Amino acid sequence: MRTRMLGKLAVSEIGAGCMSISANYGPPADKNQGIAVLRAAHEKGVTLFDTAEVYGPYRNEELVGEALAPIRDKVSIATKFGYDIEAGGHNSHPDHIKKVVEGSLKRLRTDRIDLYYQHRVDKKVPIEDVAGAVKELIQQGKVLHFGLSEASARTIRRAHAVQPVAAVQTEYSVMNRDPEKNGVLTTCEELGIGFVPWGPVGMGYLTGKIDARTTFDPNTDFRSGFDRFTPENLAANKPVVDLLVRVAKRKGTTPAQIALAWLLAQRPWIVPIPGTRRADHLEENLGAIHVELTPADLQEMEAELSKIEVHGGRMSAKYMVEVEE
Q1: Per-residue model confidence as pLDDT tens digits over 144-169
Q2: Is residue 55 annotated as a catalytic residue, yes or no?
Q3: What share of the chain in percent tops pLDDT 70?
Q4: CA-CA distance, 301 to 129, in Å (whole number)?
Q5: Is this prediction's pTM over 0.85?
Q6: How does the average pLDDT of the chain come out, rounded?
Q7: All domains of the chain, ordered by start, with CATH?
Q8: Pick the catalytic residue: 55, 83, 117, 205?
Q9: How many angstroms separate the CA atoms of 254 and 207, rounded?
């Protein structure tokens, strides 16, 4: 596993998205299973582990804290603030940030958070105030690096002027390429900010193991309400998966590995964070670092992808209203 830089934070080239172990992709996994998968990820070279207070809520941070406690000094933990879990809605007021960081530190069993993201931009609080609050936490040693999630290029620049932003996290994959078009990747490149794609295998769709017959429990799986996961759009988007399957067969690998290798090939400061609760899927995801996509492969994929229309929005309206354009 090679190292990549998120600003000044050195991490493994593939990280671990921890959310799906505890929430949003079906019922929570057994705690011991989750701990075993996270520790196995580290044994295989992963050093970046991504969670948030809202996952569960709280349960995922507790799981990550317990799993990584024995190896705390060998890993980087990323978590997120920005929701008022008790009252509902967003809350990135400086006083709230300084309050909730204490809960995250306790649940994560640590004295510092390596990368602290604003989970979603709070339209009621100037981003300069948010960055200033995190800057104070960095000065106190409770936080080491500042991140933003689903923020616009303009917001990233404003925040970076107050406190350098180490990483921006946004959904990005062969299926959702918005960061290429809205100026976010360009801004990150210009300012020396790392980029962390969540949903790098299309929330599971790009593995080739989901089709129009797949059902999602509306009580435990948020994909049940996402446009892209209706039976009609699952069927309509099959050409994307078919392309990955063709390239994977030629390379002797899997569609998920091609999707991750494609991301790694886009920029040297991109660190995808695929999530899983299963040891076999972990092995598959991390195997992407051994897949070499040549310039010819990438040109071929680009030509094919340019002909494919992706059907359905990436999330439901409820979630998309939180995303800055």
Answers
A1: 999 999 999 999 999 999 999 999 99
A2: yes
A3: 100
A4: 42
A5: yes
A6: 97
A7: 3-320 (3.20.20.100)
A8: 55
A9: 8
